Amino acid sequence: MKHLPNILSISRIFLAILLLFVALHYDVILPDFVDKSWVNYLTCLIFCVASLTDFFDGYIAREYRVHSRFGEVFDPLADKMLILSAFIALLILDRASPWAVFLILSREFFITGLRVIIAGSGASVAASASGKYKTGAQIAAIGFLLADFFPGGEVLLWVAVALTLYSGADYTIKYVKSINV
């Protein structure tokens, strides 16, 4: 049980690579007699399974108090790789606004950089509920856009953008307050 969260994080990295590979090369993977729309369900399934590993690695680590330096580094890295591969796939499949993807990924890189600064300074800024909502909104939007069966996927994406930018601002404000104390 001790290594299971790390194994799940590593599996998420491989699933992120698989997701992008399927989106890029579905014409080679799927036989000719299979309708090409099945790539939607396959990429969505891969993404959903990978998203579940994110939930379970955190749950197991908290429940059994198994924390490691490896997990602290690779869990968020695996999360970013999954989101990045999903958004690249959506851009390739022409299902997501490049502006929405740019805003979300910019926030993710900015906050990752800020976390590095925080870790170096010895300060601590706890995760907030807005970050959890942001993640949920991103997962829902990506899932619906990959499956391509819900016409409101683009609306969900822009809701995710709003929550992403809000949580980034929230995290930044908390950091600024922590260094001014």
From TrEMBL:
Residue stretches in coiled coil: none
Catalysed transformations (reactions): a CDP-1,2-diacyl-sn-glycerol + sn-glycerol 3-phosphate = a 1,2-diacyl-sn-glycero-3-phospho-(1'-sn-glycero-3'-phosphate) + CMP + H(+)
Keyword Ion transport: no
UniProt subcellular location: Membrane
GO cellular component term, pick one: membrane
Protein topology in the membrane: Multi-pass membrane protein
Keywords recorded for this protein, A-Z: Lipid biosynthesis, Lipid metabolism, Membrane, Phospholipid biosynthesis, Phospholipid metabolism, Transferase, Transmembrane, Transmembrane helix
Pathway: Phospholipid metabolism; phosphatidylglycerol biosynthesis; phosphatidylglycerol from CDP-diacylglycerol: step 1/2
Transmembrane segments: 7-26, 38-60, 81-103, 109-127, 139-166
GO MF terms held by the record: CDP-diacylglycerol-glycerol-3-phosphate 3-phosphatidyltransferase activity
Record's keyword annotation contains Transferase: yes
EC numbers on record: 2.7.8.5
Gene3D superfamilies xrefs: 1.20.120.1760
Record GO biological process: glycerophospholipid biosynthetic process
Family, similarity comment: Belongs to the CDP-alcohol phosphatidyltransferase class-I family.
PANTHER family, alphabetized: CDP-DIACYLGLYCEROL--GLYCEROL-3-PHOSPHATE 3-PHOSPHATIDYLTRANSFERASE 1, CHLOROPLASTIC, CDP-DIACYLGLYCEROL--GLYCEROL-3-PHOSPHATE 3-PHOSPHATIDYLTRANSFERASE-RELATED
Protein name: CDP-diacylglycerol--glycerol-3-phosphate 3-phosphatidyltransferase
Taxonomic lineage of the native organism: Bacteria, Pseudomonadati, Campylobacterota, Epsilonproteobacteria, Campylobacterales
Gene behind the chain: pgsA
